[in-house]
Amino acid sequence: MNKRVNSYNYNPLQRFIDKNIRKKLNRIPCFSSLVEDKIKWDALMLLILILFCICILMFTITILTLLNDELILERQFYPPQPYHGFPPNVTDYVPSGTTIYHVTKEFGEASMGGLGQIVTALAKAQAESDSKLDVNVIIPRYSFLSDLHRIVSFAQLSIQVRDENNNWKDVIFTVGRFFWKFTDNPNVLSKNPSKTRKIGVYLIGPSKNFKPLNLAYKKVLNNLEIYSTPSKLPQEWKDLYFCKAAAELITFLNSSPESSLFDRVDPRGVDIVHLHGATNALVLDFIKQFYIEENYNGKGKGKGKGKSNKVSNSKDEILSSYPPPSIVYTLHDYQEEQYYSNKIININKFLDLTNRKDLIKYVHGRRFYPSALAIDNSEVATFVSASMAREMVEESLEFEAKELIIPSILNRATTGHWIGITNGVDFNTFNPFNDSKLLEFNSNFPRNIDNFDDELLYAELIEESSQELVINAKSNARKHLIKEELLNQKDFNRVLLLYVGRFQYNKGLEFFSHAAEIIAKYDAKFIIMGQQNNYPLKYLYQIQSKYPENILIISDLELQSKWGILFRAAADLQFVPSLTESFGLVAAEGLLFGSSIISTGVGGLSEFLINKSSKYMTEGYNSYLFKLVNNKDKDYNIHNSNERYQLVQQSIEGLKAVLTMALEDYIRLKNNLQEKEIFIRNLIKDALKLSWNRKDGPLNQYTKAYSLAMSNEQKNLKVNVLY
Ligand SMILES: *[C@@H]1O[C@H](CO)[C@@H](O)[C@H](O)[C@H]1NC(C)=O
Ligand SMILES: *[C@@H]1O[C@H](CO)[C@@H](O)[C@H](O)[C@H]1NC(C)=O
Ligand SMILES: *[C@@H]1O[C@H](CO)[C@@H](O)[C@H](O)[C@H]1NC(C)=O
Predict the structure, then answer these.
(1) Do both 706 and 575 map to the same domain?
(2) Among 82, 385, 396, 553, which is most exposed with the fewest C-beta within 10 angstroms?
(3) One Pfam family this chain carries (predicted)?
(4) Can you give the CATH number for the domain in which 344 is found?
C-alpha cells in the first residue's frame, strides 16, 4: 500500500505558520551573540512573545477551519480491476409506457452548462424515439419559467423540516407542471418535416408556509441565475429542500398514477427515477425512507390529491402491487462533483442523521458527501464517458479526492452496475443543415452527405459542380460575416481558428497567447467567442492588442446568439485546448460544422478525435492533438494554479507544432478545393456517428441501464437491507 496523507485545499494559514517556524529555527545560532545586549534581548523576547501569540492565534484559527471545512483524506492506492460494462444478458427491453423521471437542476431553457445540455438532449432523444418511454423531468420552479410556459398547478404536497427550535414542521409546497414541446428530426439529413413531441416537466415550487424556504427559486430572471440564492436562504438548504420535495413528489406520483400518455397501456407509477449529479443524490435516500415509512411503518398520511392510505403488514403483498421506483444515478463530472457536500447541521434539518448509522461513512469532518451514497445505493450508477468510466476502474485514473467515490465505484463495477455511457450529440441544437439563420444567408450545409459522388466531384470543374458543396456554404457564411463587418475583407482568405466556450482556466485559456503567436505568424485569424469566467477578460484583450489584425474577441452574449452559428459555419479549425473534459461537446459540434479540431484530446475527447499522427497522413484523421506534458504523470491538480501553470508551460511546444501543421495543411488546401471538400465531408461524417440514437449508441445504452435497474430481485434486496 502506497499511503501518504494528502490535504486538499492546503490552507494558506498553515503554509504561513510552517514558514515562520522554519524561519525561527534558522535564527537560533544568532541568540548567543545577543545575550550581552540586554535591551536588544528584551526587545527580542518581546518580539518572540508577540510572534508566539500570533502563532497561537493562527494555529487556533487553522484548527477551527480544519474542523469546519477542510477535507483531509488519506491517500489510497486502489489496485486496478477489470471493467465489465453491462452483464452480457442485459437487453434493451423495457415494457411499453415505462415512466422515467429525470431529477435535475438544469433542463431546457433552464440550462446553464453541460449538465443541462446533456439532460435535455437525452430526454429529447428518449421522447422522440420509438422506444415506448414516457419521459418526464423534475426541476425547481425557477421564476422565469412562468414567463415562458403555461404552468398549471399539479399538486400540493408537504415534507417535514426542522425549524429553528429543532421541531419537525410540515412544510407545504406546490408542484406545477407544463409540457415542454419541441419539434425536431432525429435524422438531420432527412428532408422529412420534423415532428412535435412533448416531455412532462414537474416544477417544485417554493414553500408556502416556511421561512426562508419560501424564497427558493424566486427572482431568478434567466438561466444564468439558476444557482443564485437570496442571502437569507443558504444554498445548502435550498438543495436539501429540493431533494426531499422531489422525493415526496415521486412517492406521490408512484402511489397515485395518472393515466398514461400511451393509450393502450394501464396507468403506471414511477418506473425509473434518473438522478443527475451529486446535488440530487439524496433524493435516493429520501425515496427509500418514504417508501419504508409508507409501507412498513404504516405512516401513510394521505396528502395530496387521491393519495391512498396504504397500511399493511405483509411486505410481499406490497412489493408486488406497488414496487418502489428503480433508481439510476448519473455522475456528470469527476473534477467537482465528489466534493459536493452539506454541513451536518444542515442535513439534520431535513433528515435524522443521528439515527442513521448506515450514513456515517459518508461523513468527513463536519460535512456529508452524498455522491458515494448514490453510487452505492442506486440500482445502476453511470458516468458520462465510457472511456473514463473504464479508466477509473482499470487504470486507477488519478483525480482529486477520488478517495471519496472510487471505493464505491469499484464495488459497483465488480457486479456490472457501474457503466460508462458516452453522450451523444443533439444535432438539432446547432443544425448546420436546417438552421434558419444559415438558410437565410444561403450558408446551410447540403444534406447530400451519405449520397455524394466523389468521382463526379473530381470529374467536374469545382465552380461548375452539379452537386451541392459544403465549401460553398462555408464560404457564403464567411462572406456574410464580412458584409456585417464582423470580419474584414482580408479574412476571406485567412484560415479561421474558432474557440467557443467559457473563459475558464480549465478550458486551457493559458494556451491562447501561444496559439496567437503562431496564428499571427501565418496571418490566420483567431476568433475567441464565449462567456466570462475565472480567466480575466483583460488578459485576452492584452493578447488582442498585440495582434489586432489576427484576433477577434466576442464576449457579448447578444452578438453570439445572433451570429454564433455563422462563425461556426465559417470556421476551418476549432480550438479545444481543455485540461480536462468529460465529453467535449464543442469538439463534436466543431466536426459537425466541418472544422477539424486542435486539442489536447483529454478525457472523453479521445473517444472520437483521431490524431493526425504524422505529417504524411492524408486521410482518416479529424484532429491535430498535442500532449499535455506532465512530469508527475496524470497526478496533477488543475485547481492548483502553480501545477496548472507548469502543465501548460511544458505543453506549449506541442501545441505550436500541431497548430503549425494544421495551418500549413489548410493553406495548402486553399488550392485543392476538391480535396478540401472531401476532407470536410469526412469530418461531418465523424460527427454524425455520434448521434444519440445510433445503433448501440447512448440512447440504447441508457435503456439497457433502465432495464437492468428494473430487474426486480436487485431492488427488493435494497429495500430489505434498509429495512
Ligand atoms: C442475468 O444473469 C445474472 C447472473 O449472471 C442473473 O442473476 C440474472 O437473473 C440474469 N438476468 C436475466 C434477465 O436473465
Ligand atoms: C427545418 O426547420 C423548420 C423550422 O425550424 C422546420 O419546420 C422543418 O420541419 C425542419 N426541417 C427538417 C427536415 O428538419
Ligand atoms: C499527434 O500527432 C503528432 C504528430 O503529428 C504528435 O506530435 C502528437 O504528440 C500526437 N498527439 C498525441 C496526443 O498523441
Answers:
(1) no
(2) 82
(3) Glycos_transf_1
(4) 3.40.50.2000
Q: Which atom from ligand 1 is nearest to the alpha carbon of 91?
A: 13
Query: Which atom of ligand 3 is closest in space to residue 627's alpha carbon?
Result: 13
CA distances from 302 to 38, 157, 158, 255, 586 (A): 84, 10, 11, 10, 48
Rounded distance from Cα 419 to ligand 1 centre (Å): 17
Ligand 3 within 6 A of 476 CB? no
528 lies in the same domain as 385: no
What angle is formed at CA 504 by the lines to CA 502 and CA 509, rounded to 5 degrees? 105
Q: Are 177 and 152 in contact (CB under 8 A)?
A: yes
Number of domains the chain is built from:
3
- What is the residue range of 621's domain? 436-629+671-688
Give the separation between CA 611 and CA 605, rounded to whole angstroms: 11
The reply to whether 483 and 621 lie within a common domain is yes
The pLDDT tens digits for 422-446 are: 989 888 888 999 999 999 999 999 9
89 C-alpha to ligand 1 centroid (Å): 6
Q: Could you read off the pLDDT of 245-303 as tens digits, one per residue?
A: 999 999 999 887 665 554 445 567 899 999 999 999 999 999 999 988 877 665 444 33
**Nearest ligand to residue 415 Cα:** 1
pTM (predicted TM-score)? 0.78
What pLDDT shows up at residue 258? 65
Question: 571 CA to middle of ligand 2, Å?
Answer: 24
Residue 175 has pLDDT above 60, yes or no: yes
Give the mean pLDDT of 50-68: 66
363 assigned to some structural domain: yes
Task: List ligand 2's pocket residues with C-beta within 6 A.
Answer: 185, 191-194, 434, 436
Residues 512-539, mean pLDDT to the nearest whole number: 95
Amino acid letter, residue 346: N
In the predicted model, what is the mean pLDDT of the chain?
Answer: 85
Q: If pLDDT is split at 50, 70 and 90, which confidence band does 63 have?
A: low
**CA of 182, nearest ligand number:** 2
Looking at the predicted structure, is the pLDDT value of residue 482 above 80?
yes
Q: Phi/psi at 495 (nearest 5 deg)? A: -75, 130
- Same domain? 675 vs 712: no
User: Ligand 3 test: best mutation among 596, 597, 611, most atoms within 8 Å of CB?
Assistant: 611
Q: How far is CA 144 from CA 140, 276, 530, 628, in A?
A: 11, 22, 23, 42
